[in-house]
């Protein structure tokens, strides 16, 4: 009966995508999402419906969602750190779940050609108005558009081998309406460099106070900005690390189980999430250092050159916190 009805099982678009850098947080989200979107579950439901009928009937068409879109934005094409790590992350996910059709959607941008888009994103940022907000907002806005390129071999294996002569790029737009974002992981698991500074200067108490402040202001500094930039593309942002049960669970651990900031970057920061990645079998992702989207995508570098002349001049002007002058 399954063979007879194969033609009625249609391939569907992924309902959920992941904002993907190939880093620790996005790799964990992708792996957990894979466990939630199991195509075998849908096949089982289809067979149960047919068997329950007890007689031959016009088969229902079923959409099987066996693909997951991984959205990656770069302002330096294949040279951006996030583009490099996203391709490495894709290979690890393919080993993690070989039956899943992982689609790495590579979204390339040139800041010098985004004048109108920049003005539009600035209207979404309100009341935020720093260059850092603009860099993050523009990167999120472009990524959540889902419009980029995927690489496919002639045999139809998506993203399988970038070095293959048979590999071709195909224009692609993600139809996912929900985008998973890793916000909250750094704030709760001591992922920022300033967390290490607070720990060194104020021990565990100083670190606790800084992380508490981060969570108290995340809605104002991050979530409103990020949600508006993503929603503008018709997608709903979801923040799994900010789920109430996740927050409650993390608060139940002592800080020294969350992070060990005496250890180097890539090992002691976000220690608890690195343990999760190891348990999932994501051994390469488990040791990757933290990299913010504005630096990993290299939009910060391009913005510094455009607005300040150079990275050095931008650093002298504290470009990250500098406010954008508006007419």
From TrEMBL:
Origin superkingdom: Eukaryota
Protein name: Uncharacterized protein
Protein's organism: Rhododendron molle (Chinese azalea)
Organism lineage: Eukaryota, Viridiplantae, Streptophyta, Embryophyta, Tracheophyta
């Amino acid at each position: 009966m399954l063979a007879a009805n194969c033609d009625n099982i249609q391939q569907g678009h992924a309902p959920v995508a992941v904002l993907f850098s190939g880093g620790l947080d996005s790799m964990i989200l992708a792996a957990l999402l894979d466990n939630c979107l199991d195509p075998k579950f849908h096949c089982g439901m289809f067979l149960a419906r047919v068997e329950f009928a007890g007689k031959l009937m016009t088969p229902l068409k079923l959409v099987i969602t066996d693909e997951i879109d991984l959205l990656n934005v770069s302002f330096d094409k294949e040279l951006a750190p996030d583009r490099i790590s996203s391709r490495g992350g894709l290979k690890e996910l393919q080993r993690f779940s070989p039956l899943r059709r992982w689609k790495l959607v590579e979204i390339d941008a040139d800041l010098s050609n985004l004048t109108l888009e920049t003005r539009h994103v600035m209207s979404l940022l309100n009341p935020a108005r720093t260059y850092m907000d603009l860099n993050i907002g523009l990167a999120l806005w472009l990524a959540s558009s889902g419009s980029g390129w995927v690489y496919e071999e002639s045999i139809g294996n998506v993203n399988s081998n970038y070095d293959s002569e048979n590999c071709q790029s195909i224009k692609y737009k993600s139809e996912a309406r929900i985008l998973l974002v890793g916000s909250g992981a750094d704030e709760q698991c001591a992922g920022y460099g300033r967390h290490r500074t607070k720990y060194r200067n104020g021990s565990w108490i100083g670190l606790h106070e800084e992380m508490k402040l981060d969570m108290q202001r995340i809605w104002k500094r991050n979530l409103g900005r990020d949600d508006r930039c993503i929603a503008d593309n018709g997608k709903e942002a979801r923040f799994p690390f900010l789920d109430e049960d996740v927050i409650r669970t993390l608060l139940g651990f002592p800080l020294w189980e969350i992070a060990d900031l005496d250890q180097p970057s890539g090992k002691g920061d976000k220690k608890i999430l690195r343990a999760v990645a190891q348990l999932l079998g994501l051994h390469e992702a488990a040791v990757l250092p933290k990299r913010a989207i504005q630096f990993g995508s290299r939009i910060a570098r391009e913005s510094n050159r455009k607005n300040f002349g150079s990275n050095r001049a931008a650093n002298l002007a504290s470009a990250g916190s500098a406010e954008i002058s508006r007419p």
